[in-house]
Design a protein that fits this description.
The chain has 491 residues and is an alpha/beta fold. The chain folds into two domains: 32-188, Trna Endonuclease, Chain: A, domain 1 (3-Layer(aba) Sandwich), CATH 3.40.1350; 273-491, Ribonuclease H-like superfamily/Ribonuclease H (Nucleotidyltransferase, domain 5). It is 38% helix and 20% strand. The chain has 19 helices and 15 strands. It has a six-stranded mixed β-sheet with strand order 1-2-3-4-5-6. The protein has a five-stranded mixed β-sheet with strand order 12-11-10-13-14, with helices on both faces. A two-stranded antiparallel sheet has the order 7-8. β3 and β4 (94-101) form a beta hairpin. It is globular and about 80 Å long.
């Protein structure tokens, strides 16, 4: 048993039950470019140490205590609960613990892992003298070789959303002490074969939808497009559903929160499937129309440790773009995929290929393409003006949907480009591609940089071209569809 199992149990007993029967492994979101353990040793000036290995028992760890003051990745086990301490310094039974994080400001949400780890150690007879967090230094920028001393920051406090220190970690742990044996008794007596009642709570969706949601509620995968359960941002949709209200058009106005998106959904159902605010949509299209129109999409990878000069911690590196340009009644396509430190090549080719005038569309542009372009401006100040000329012309194609100007019930309460593209064009869908989403594109790009077989590398390149190319072309289709709603002859 590990702390991840306890987290699952605390969230939902059925989640705990299902996760123990599953071999799910999340995609490694971060691209780790250094040896983290070596970096931590250099930060703390650790030269002589014991390094634990998987399935170490207490006996091995205790023997290490006799010969070493520094222990890395040391394991402790108490009543079947296995915990690991990233870095530990001790003087006899008194221990100083270091927990490391690939973030610039770990919050007190990390206390769960810390308190269970410390509880195990205290129940084994150890004294927790102090607790520190080792996290990435938000101001670090690489110049030459990695400076491991400056890369990390050591703190004895958690941080708030504004990156300001808050509670002292050791004090927070002491105030959160609990009866470990009582908690373990509950888990150890849990009947894994018990048939669990499926109860929907806000924990099912929470910050992120539970990966077992469709297993628990399979009936929702076959809902009609206009189901009341597709109503966005609604606190009462399940209550209405339970009261016999099945469709958007039948909504009980007493439970209607009144957002523009909800209004668009209800009106779409009342009008046969599609709703648009004609004046608002026409004004938006007129404002964002030009003789030359571009549609682009970027792909990038995230590096907690900067692999190249002039990169900061937790910075992304754009490795691909796809650009469709519509002018003179024709559509042209341009694309880029790079390897290694391809930032300059990315910028220079983008500047050459994006037209010097006209509207440029991206989807969810503010949180994606515009942010990436701003970062590239900082890295390449010599191209600041050319990139600014692109930035000021970027328009977010998602806005008509986010603002509730347009809705089609086939969207089922979802607003992603992939959902809308599949709705408009069933002949060319992401399901037909080897790469079907952004994380898969990142995984393929990481394979490209390791691949030595030219034919295999060529195959990977083609998969990326097809995926990102569909992203930018999907925007062309969406834009044409929006026009067709107002003026069919322009569709």
């Amino acid at each position: 048993m590990h702390i991840s199992d306890i987290r699952n149990y605390m969230r939902c007993q059925r989640l705990y039950q299902l996760s123990l029967q599953d071999e799910y492994r999340p995609f490694p979101y971060f691209n780790i470019s250094i040896d983290v353990d070596e970096s931590l040793r250099k930060k703390l000036d650790i030269n002589r140490y014991y390094e634990g290995v998987a399935n170490d028992n207490n006996e091995n760890t205790l023997r290490a205590f006799e010969d070493y003051q520094w222990l890395l990745k040391c394991r402790f086990v108490y009543r079947g609960l296995r915990v690991r301490v990233p870095v530990l310094y001790h003087d006899g039974n008194e221990c100083i613990l270091y927990f490391n994080y690939l973030s610039t400001a770990p919050s007190d949400g990390e206390l769960t892992n810390i308190k269970w780890t410390c509880a195990v150690m205290e129940n084994l007879g150890f004294v927790i003298k102090n607790i520190f967090l080792i996290h990435l230094n938000p101001s670090y920028v690489r110049h030459g070789n990695i400076d491991h001393k400056k890369l990390w920051h050591i703190s004895n406090c958690f941080y708030n959303d504004n990156n300001n220190p808050t509670r002292n970690v050791l004090d927070a742990y002491r105030k959160s002490r609990f009866n470990l044996d009582a908690q373990l008794d509950e888990l150890l007596h849990f009947d894994m074969d018990e048939t669990m009642d499926v109860i929907r709570t806000n924990k099912c969706t929470g910050r992120s939808k539970c990966r077992y949601y469709d297993i628990c509620f399979p009936e929702e995968s076959d809902l009609p497009d206009n189901s009341i359960l597709n109503l966005v941002s609604s606190q009462h949709k399940y209550e209405m559903f339970g009261n016999g209200i099945k469709y958007l058009s039948d909504i009980d106005l007493e439970y209607f929160e009144g957002t523009q998106q909800q209004y668009a959904q209800i009106m779409a159902d009342k009008r046969g499937g599609t709703f648009y605010e004609e004046i608002a949509l026409e004004n938006w299209l007129q404002t964002n129309r030009s003789e030359t129109m571009s549609f682009f999409d970027f792909e990038w990878d995230l590096y907690p440790f900067p692999p190249y000069d002039d990169m900061s911690v937790m910075q992304v590196l754009c490795f691909q773009y796809s650009l469709h340009v519509q002018r003179d009644g024709k559509i042209e396509h341009y694309q880029f995929v790079g390897e290694g430190d391809c930032r300059r090549a990315f910028v220079e080719q983008l500047i050459r290929e994006v037209p010097q005038e006209g509207v440029i569309f991206a989807y969810n542009a503010r949180g994606a393409e515009i942010m990436r372009l701003r970062e590239l401006q900082e890295t390449f100040p010599e191209y600041h003006d050319q990139l600014e000329n692109i930035i000021v012309r970027v328009v977010d194609l998602a806005q008509p949907f986010i603002k509730g100007i347009v809705y089609d019930v086939r969207m089922k309460g979802l607003y992603s480009l992939k959902v809308i593209q599949a709705m408009l064009d069933q002949q060319h869908t992401y399901k037909d591609l080897e790469v079907g989403n952004g994380l898969e594109a990142v995984a393929i790009h990481r394979q490209i940089e390791k691949e030595t077989d030219p034919e295999k590398k060529k195959e990977y390149y083609q998969q990326l071209y097809e995926y990102c190319g569909l992203d930018s072309y999907a925007m062309v289709e969406v834009y044409q569809w929006l026009n067709s709603l107002i003026k069919p002859e322009q569709g």
